[in-house]
Amino acid sequence: MEHLYRLTLSCPDRVGIVARVSNFLAQYNGTITEANQHADMAEGWFFLRNEIKADSLPFGIETFREVFAPIAADMNMAWQVNDSRQKRRIVLMASRDSHCLADLLNRWHFGDLDCEIPCVIANHDDLRSLVEWHGIPFHHVPVDPDNKAAHFAAVSELVMAARADTIVLARYMQILPQSFCTQWSGKIINIHHSFLPSFIGAKPYHQAFERGVKLIGATCHYVTEDLDAGPIIDQDVMRVSHRDTIEEMVRRGKDVEKAVLARGLRWHIEDRVLIHGNKTVVFE
Amino acid sequence: MEHLYRLTLSCPDRVGIVARVSNFLAQYNGTITEANQHADMAEGWFFLRNEIKADSLPFGIETFREVFAPIAADMNMAWQVNDSRQKRRIVLMASRDSHCLADLLNRWHFGDLDCEIPCVIANHDDLRSLVEWHGIPFHHVPVDPDNKAAHFAAVSELVMAARADTIVLARYMQILPQSFCTQWSGKIINIHHSFLPSFIGAKPYHQAFERGVKLIGATCHYVTEDLDAGPIIDQDVMRVSHRDTIEEMVRRGKDVEKAVLARGLRWHIEDRVLIHGNKTVVFE
Amino acid sequence: MEHLYRLTLSCPDRVGIVARVSNFLAQYNGTITEANQHADMAEGWFFLRNEIKADSLPFGIETFREVFAPIAADMNMAWQVNDSRQKRRIVLMASRDSHCLADLLNRWHFGDLDCEIPCVIANHDDLRSLVEWHGIPFHHVPVDPDNKAAHFAAVSELVMAARADTIVLARYMQILPQSFCTQWSGKIINIHHSFLPSFIGAKPYHQAFERGVKLIGATCHYVTEDLDAGPIIDQDVMRVSHRDTIEEMVRRGKDVEKAVLARGLRWHIEDRVLIHGNKTVVFE
Amino acid sequence: MEHLYRLTLSCPDRVGIVARVSNFLAQYNGTITEANQHADMAEGWFFLRNEIKADSLPFGIETFREVFAPIAADMNMAWQVNDSRQKRRIVLMASRDSHCLADLLNRWHFGDLDCEIPCVIANHDDLRSLVEWHGIPFHHVPVDPDNKAAHFAAVSELVMAARADTIVLARYMQILPQSFCTQWSGKIINIHHSFLPSFIGAKPYHQAFERGVKLIGATCHYVTEDLDAGPIIDQDVMRVSHRDTIEEMVRRGKDVEKAVLARGLRWHIEDRVLIHGNKTVVFE
Hints:
Enzyme class (chains A, B, C, D): hydrolase
Keywords (chains A, B, C, D): Hydrolase, One-carbon metabolism, Purine biosynthesis
Oligomer: homotetramer
Family (chains A, B, C, D): Belongs to the PurU family.
Largest sheet of chain A: 7 strands, mixed
Pathway (chains A, B, C, D): Purine metabolism; IMP biosynthesis via de novo pathway; formate from 10-formyl-5,6,7,8-tetrahydrofolate: step 1/1
Organism (chains A, B, C, D): Saccharospirillum mangrovi
């Protein structure tokens, strides 16, 4: 895989941002392999993502950060530059349902998901064997309904110990405490099994069945304090009909869920998702 | 176009319904060109639609009704049989937006929508020339915000005078009175510009934009007393991204709206939609 | 899972087929849970699939076959009736690519694919560990380019020993000998990584890239003597753009391939696919 | 509609292109409202499209061209800059089928297609009334099978007289002479009623029906000397099944055809399509 630096930034829109960034890169002879920009005219906000060949630059990622910092400061940029060789550390959280977890693990195992998975945390023990076959530590942290705080304390400790930078809720069926959501803001990715904002909360396929919709869907989004209301990364749907029972919807919906989650996570890993307020800019 | 009888029925499920119906048709040598059935196991309800070649039977539609009535009564069927040569009479209602109306008129004009359109009713006069070019009477019935009842009384009269059996709200932006909805239950088709139940009510594209969804959609449904909550006939979606302004969503959404409305209306015309409670069985 | 008998049949179209079949079932008090029919008017051919609750009938599958045989003979039916409890025996064949194989194994493992998988046969040893973790025997049968016959003889023996009724080519990259295709006619399912008939043969993503298409796809079909030309069970596509390299197409196409193969195989297992000439009737 | 300049260019890839272009724009205080770039690493070719607010620049389009020319020359750019207020002049060509033509005319009529349509040319007279209602001149130029050259000579003259910059074949069923294709290279847009490269040539729905595909599609492409083999702008598909006759495929396919053509034409009008060899870069 090519060695790249990924620069992403957002700032108030004004004339000359691209000139400034591209001059900076051209000055050091940096080869841009992919470039995306977006100007939100209504918000007056500008977004940019550049992929640069690491070995076209005369310095490493630390120096990159140093020399770019003054430009960023001058333009009030929220920004980061990441090294594609420093892999993201993604902790997966699950419950009993295997489809999303198994799908992510397979993609990772066979080289289609470029990250580290330091561990999997689940509130049931069912998926231990699946996870351990992949050589990944599995932590079973049960939930005591009378003391959920203990569960989340243990989870929090494991996540810290794993030096995670991202948490993926791969059909982990618990609602996270607000403090945890705030602490990990923009770093927790959930897959919700409906096309949000339809069918927020529990049992969305049951809700969909009751309403008699002709499409079911899934939504990959960042978790915030508000249930199922965080910034949406991606969504997709599939057709259903009067023939489909709830069980059939649940079964068929799995294919949408895993596809949408894998796509959203991949974009996140490749720094393609910029959060702005409660929305995302996705440079896919 | 082939001359067909379209038999649709629903009734409590039990052994022998299909045998009874197919024996009836076989006894008269009726040729079935298309047959669909559905047993809703949870509800214990059975649905059937048969298309029969009219000239394979030794009698006309009236006699069909007479000879089939005892079977239907015996099985507690809600049923009807229609003659494909007796075209549906569809009144279209519109406002200022042309896309759905123009699309339906074109399909009708060039033979892809097999019905009569006795008239178009609109609360603005903008689309008169479009409608009249097709040789269809256009009634401009303005809405006085202080006396909406007068508008709906006039509409009601025009619909009755047109001997309509179906009303299509082709982006007609008024909320119908409850009494009208009740009177025309199962006979008013609306196109809502969102994937319901998301974004009920006014300005769904604005709501979609605010929420930052990655899909916009449209829903074709029967109108009931509850706003945007009636039985759904069809839905579809299209992708949007951070680049799309509200205006762009509105523009692009038109293509979904007109496709979904045309499809749903066609199914209705061909007796493919059976309403049961707040859901539909669609034998497409 | 419910205990069902699945009756499928096809025969020359005539009046009274449905009456005959439904009378037969009603006479024995058989409860039909799902019924599909299709009359191909151009070909004059009739197709039917019924699912019947096994315990609603007073006899087992063998007696079912005996008592139905005279009706079938009388109407020149090609037919079969299967017992949902007698699971299909599916041999999977693979090469080095894991995505389709891993996907099918996971679905099977977690209960979403109702069949037996007596063994996996591959011409490379790479996927042994994956397969064996699922507790399924893995046979590595290498291909000697100078003596392919030996490979296919060994494969044939293994398939027979496994008492397979269906063979799935889950990205098995060898062309099967004609005699093998003939022997297993209608029982070998392949996934081809293009929307056939575009890009027959080797390296379809390369062909797609060269042509500059904006959609890539996958096709699940029965294997016949003619390469990639057998009856199509299902197809699907996804969008690509000028940004996608061949490698990216290959990576992204995997999601379509595995979804289409899983869907097609499921329909096959549930007796939903009837082959007629070089086409299929799919009662999904 | 906002007043914009649309700059598009392609050239051999090298360091500093974006810097050069963005410096140029920043120097004159130009506000970029949309920016897209693409580096084709395999071909070593670079593509760019910028939309600039016209009134943010201190000069008009002619001066823009003058001051940008030296940069373009220095970097061996193929380039153009267009003024959104100088509308494209699109000649539509049709035969008897109305769906694509009616759809484009409606979009134009109601403001969703920002161009001039100086005239419609057809080899049959059927659609005259439709076209003339929109206030657009209609030219009926019949085809004499024994003297097609006369037809094309007349067409050529009309297109020149209309000062067209683009020709759209809206289901115009004639094969254009090679010389005409060469003369209008990159300026003739066709809608082909299949997902190319499947089903090149005549009667693609018949070919699709024969092959038993489960998807039908449409392809919008630039016309070249090779039949149905020019650079693809856009494609889409829809599901079909064993129930669909050829007539039904033809009817349903119309919706894909008109959607794909309208989308492709819109991108062309907005200078979003850059041709490179036999492929397109589409900055949608």
